[in-house]
Amino acid sequence: MSERDDLVGALDRDGVLAGIRWAFTSAADRVAEDFSEAAGHDATWVGVTRFTLFRDRLDRVFSCRRYAVADGMDGRLSLDVLHAELSERDVDTFPMLDPDLVVRADLSGSPGWSHGHTRWLLASSAFGKLDELPWPQKSSTKQLVAQQPTDEPQEPTLFDQFAEEEASGLVALMAKTKLDLHTLVVGHSLDAEHGGRELVVGQPRLNSDGGSAWYWNHDLLQVPPLDGGRQQPLVPVSVAPDTTPDAPVKLRRPAAKQSEHEQAGL
Amino acid sequence: MSVSDRAATAAAFFDGARLTMARHLAGLRKSDLAALINKSPTAVSAWEAGAKRPTPSTVAQLALGLSVDPGFFAARPNDVAKVSALPHFRSLRSTSQLARDQAFAYGQVALDIAESLDRHVEFPEVDMYSRPVDPGDLDSDGPEQAARALREAWMFGAEPAGHLVRNLETHGVLVVFSPRQTASVDAYSFDSRLRPVVVLNPVKRDYYRQRFDVAHELGHLIMHGDAEPGGRIVEEQAHRFASELLMPASEITGLLPTAMNRGAWVALAKLKEQWGVSIQALLFRARRLGRLSDVSYRNAMVTLSTRGWRRNEPGLISAIEQPSLLPRAVELLENEGIGELTLIEQCRVPAELFRTVTARTPERLEVEPLDAERKAKESRKVVSLLPRLNPPVVNENEPQN
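Above: the input entities. Below: the structure tokens describing the complete assembly.
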């Protein structure tokens, strides 16, 4: 089994990919709904808003940062906070995931999330250009991620003919770029005007040579949504009684009955 | 009386507004209802508008399709829909029109039940004042002035606001919990010529945050009688009203921390219990009143998030404020020998709906949706509030004939 199969399989099995897909869909839907060329929105607005909302939705679905719950608490706590401003569709499709499944794992200030020993960062792209993401022009963090060693078979290179001692020197050099966690990138794009969208998770490849931006990537929009359905809130079945005296409510007694009561001194 | 007799009577007194209400409660569009009874959407529109009157057999079909008694469609002394102002929903974009219509219809049913019980009991008279604030003005201190005026009128003095729901009820406001099916709609309110209504979210089980919701809705009722609901400024004004009502600047400013250290968190925890507001609200207030810098506020919120307090802030009070007007009325009448079933019959609403409206506490929540609810969800987004194929209700306190 390849590294790709291992990584994708683990993320998929535990529902992480479904969570990422939900987060992207929710963010992209909201951007598409709000986008208005007439209001002055442009590609920059789409990119910035999509990134901001995607990061927020990932924090929601994985109970991170402002949506965190204390250790050992159930993820169904205070759903009104978790569901604030979401559409009904978002709420209906919100995957039910354990709050401990994923934690935030930023890398040099770049927002990141991790599951087990795998981290992912976000990278946006122009629609249709995901395969050409120019890592050398991206941040040094992304470049570092794109230089990680990978077990994936590569195209033959000039280095294949190096002598053994030279090759080991290269391995030592590569080891310096090894990160604390194996780090993938979630690439995403949105054509707000025409509704096109792309979402992949993959191992980025430093494409200084102008080749593909990925050793491999996996299309997340093909991931079937989890059959979670609307989350049911976790609340005590019974509510503690309110001991404050009731507001004044009086019986309207029929006149005859009223006078009987009065005669009886009631 | 047989169903056909009841349908004939209901047809004679048919009120299109009642059909609209039932359709909204069921979460149906006109075309959905038309398909349900094999009639045209135009016919449904005509019945609802009062342009045409359905035949007794159609009334029976409508009643069956919507799971209400035919008597539900009969005219009432007051058309609650007509006398109600537009409701103030928090976020218009996150709930569909269908869901909002359903929530509003529920509030109207609550008002209708209160009107029906009013024949037997005296509720507190409506004693609310109006202090309109320009819905386009974000700069003036109109909301704060309105809150201060209310504190004075309700004689809070320099003290915390006390039991807010009870304060509202004592001044004639009807407060009810919404059913769990509409939990995605946050607390909302509307005024009416009968009495103002506040509908509370049934899943928000945090005493401190719920009080802020109630204060927010009270702000709408006092300031926004004529304002277009749902606007950002209108919502912001209601928030400012709630802040001043619950945390009056004149009393709390000097008590709020100016820097966030260990002592500050302890002080906030004490203020939380004293004033009945969340630490998040206190921090926001401290920034608003210039006690905390933006940086200190942001850092404090990060700390709070890391501890998981945004979703579960620790506090000493676990019992949320609960309404009493309708449950008290039902209890009084039961003591007088007028049982729940009699009242349900008089109100002519489904028993489950009557019980949800007149409950002291929110509906019991199941961890998983009921099968029927799940199936309904698969076909439609908005789940009906009307019973479907439910067994008949048996009241154990009533003798069975």
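Note for the figure: Residues 97-117 of chain B form the longest helix (21 residues).
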